[in-house]
């Protein structure tokens, strides 16, 4: 395929990391699979039957912006771990390009790769990967030791990140003396110690109890706020993805199904697979007012209270229901539209609309009989509607 010629010049890209047409195929003569369209098109089972190959990652393209939390989500076996390992070439990609800070990672030699892995990337694993015979502080400073930093420097830096992740006082414990949550805090501290540009997480909290897991998610949100690192975060858990991700890439059988913000996945699922995935999510906690705003009707009074388009439906519910006028949705002095009780109730009452696909369809297609006016004629003419913001990460 000649698609490579069409990629933008990496020097001009604003992405920190750019993944372009990436494939990882396991099996005999793997390299022919991406090259030959008649093989590349086959679904996973047929490809395996015909060639003995598994396409763990198929033709993925996405950019990660500096400072972004980029979540990769998918069921077990969808290729998440393979993808994240390809990013630092711990797994060697079969085809495609990896551009990091303008550098072609696939052209890097072993020495350069080792340097990059030590200084630019850090990985946090599901099973912690701590060294059992080393104290917490020595686990945390291990990477700095490998990098040849002096003992006082190591110690100072290790203590800094131990304090940062809330482990102060546990410096001299051994991993087995700590709970799972605490062990993963050590994993986090170790990843932060070498001050990487990108933190890679491969389902780091999957082994933890739900309560501890939520605590750790909050911890990651806090750390991100404090240290502002770019993160690529793998999970199979939608609520975790929604809580952490600026954008979410949903994978299925190695391929991308949808890439967007959490409210885009919930508000405008790309297909039935995504719709099924997001079905049980409380929509009012994810959707913002821009998803349910509608043009004012003739004769409607426009002197109600004002809210911004990024307010969550959940947060607006009380105000809208208590107001006897429609609430105006206003951005930068411009009226985007209005919201009344019906729009709110369609989201709050109907946790899983079956046919919701588009901005206005979300309320129009929800089956609520109160929406008599329907959605015809109210197409997405609203400036700043989610469709137009689809490619820009939230920040
Ligand atoms: N080293 C390997 N050799 C052959 N197949 C592999 C290898 N690693 C992963 N796979 C296959 O690739 C697919 C994706 O695996 P993985 O990336 O681990 O998915 P996930 O992390 O989403 O659970 C699976 O079908 C898995 O069996
Ligand atoms: Mg995995």
UniProtKB/TrEMBL annotation:
<dbReference type="InterPro" id="IPR005892">
    <property type="entry name" value="Gly-betaine_transp_ATP-bd"/>
</dbReference>
<dbReference type="Pfam" id="PF00005">
    <property type="entry name" value="ABC_tran"/>
</dbReference>
<feature type="domain" description="ABC transporter">
    <location>
        <begin position="42"/>
        <end position="278"/>
    </location>
</feature>
<keyword id="KW-0067">ATP-binding</keyword>
<dbReference type="GO" id="GO:0005524">
    <property type="term" value="F:ATP binding"/>
</dbReference>
<dbReference type="InterPro" id="IPR051921">
    <property type="entry name" value="ABC_osmolyte_uptake_ATP-bind"/>
</dbReference>
<dbReference type="InterPro" id="IPR027417">
    <property type="entry name" value="P-loop_NTPase"/>
</dbReference>
<dbReference type="InterPro" id="IPR003439">
    <property type="entry name" value="ABC_transporter-like_ATP-bd"/>
</dbReference>
<feature type="region of interest" description="Disordered">
    <location>
        <begin position="358"/>
        <end position="395"/>
    </location>
</feature>
<dbReference type="GO" id="GO:0016020">
    <property type="term" value="C:membrane"/>
</dbReference>
<keyword id="KW-0547">Nucleotide-binding</keyword>
<dbReference type="InterPro" id="IPR017871">
    <property type="entry name" value="ABC_transporter-like_CS"/>
</dbReference>
<keyword id="KW-0813">Transport</keyword>
<dbReference type="GO" id="GO:0006970">
    <property type="term" value="P:response to osmotic stress"/>
</dbReference>
<dbReference type="GO" id="GO:0016887">
    <property type="term" value="F:ATP hydrolysis activity"/>
</dbReference>
<dbReference type="GO" id="GO:0031460">
    <property type="term" value="P:glycine betaine transport"/>
</dbReference>
<comment type="similarity">
    <text>Belongs to the ABC transporter superfamily.</text>
</comment>
<keyword id="KW-0129">CBS domain</keyword>
<dbReference type="InterPro" id="IPR003593">
    <property type="entry name" value="AAA+_ATPase"/>
</dbReference>
<protein>
    <submittedName>
        <fullName>Glycine betaine/proline transport system ATP-binding protein</fullName>
    </submittedName>
</protein>
């Amino acid at each position: 395929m000649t698609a490579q010629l069409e990629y933008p010049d990496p020097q001009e890209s604003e992405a920190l990391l750019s993944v372009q047409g990436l494939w990882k195929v396991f099996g005999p003569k793997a390299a022919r699979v991406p090259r030959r369209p008649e093989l590349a098109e086959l679904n996973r089972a047929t490809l395996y039957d015909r060639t003995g190959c598994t396409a763990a990652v198929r033709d993925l393209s996405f950019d990660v912006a500096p400072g972004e939390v980029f979540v990769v989500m998918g069921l077990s076996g969808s290729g998440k771990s393979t993808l994240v390992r390809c990013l630092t070439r711990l797994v060697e990609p079969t085809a495609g390009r990896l551009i990091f800070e303008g550098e072609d990672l696939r052209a890097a030699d072993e020495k350069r790769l080792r340097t990059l892995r030590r200084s630019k990337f850090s990985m946090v694993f599901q099973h912690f990967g701590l060294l059992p015979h080393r104290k917490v502080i020595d686990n945390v400073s291990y990477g700095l030791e490998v990098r040849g930093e002096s003992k006082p420097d190591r110690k100072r830096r290790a203590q800094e990140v131990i304090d940062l992740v809330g482990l102060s006082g546990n410096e001299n414990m051994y991993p087995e003396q700590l709970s799972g949550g605490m062990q993963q805090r050590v994993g986090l501290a170790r990843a932060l110690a070498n001050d990487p540009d990108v933190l890679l997480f491969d389902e780091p909290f999957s082994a933890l109890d739900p309560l501890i897991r939520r605590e750790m998610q909050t911890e990651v949100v806090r750390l991100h706020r404090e240290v502002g690192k770019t993160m690529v975060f793998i999970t199979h858990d939608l609520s975790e993805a929604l809580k952490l991700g600026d954008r979410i890439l949903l994978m299925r059988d190695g391929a991308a199904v949808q890439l967007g913000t959490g409210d885009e996945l919930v508000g405008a699922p790309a297909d039935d697979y995504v719709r099924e995935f997001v079905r049980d999510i409380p929509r009012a906690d994810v959707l913002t007012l821009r998803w349910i705003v509608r043009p004012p009707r003739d004769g409607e009074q426009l002197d109600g209270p004002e809210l911004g388009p990024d307010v969550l439906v959940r947060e607006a519910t009380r105000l809208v229901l208590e107001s006897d006028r429609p609430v105006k949705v206003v951005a930068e002095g411009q009226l985007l539209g209005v919201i009344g009780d019906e729009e709110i109730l369609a989201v709050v009452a109907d946790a899983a609309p079956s046919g919701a696909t588009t901005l206005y369809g979300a309320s129009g297609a929800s089956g609520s009989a109160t929406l008599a006016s329907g959605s015809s004629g109210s197409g997405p003419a609203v400036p700043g509607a989610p469709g137009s913001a689809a490619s820009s990460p939230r920040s």
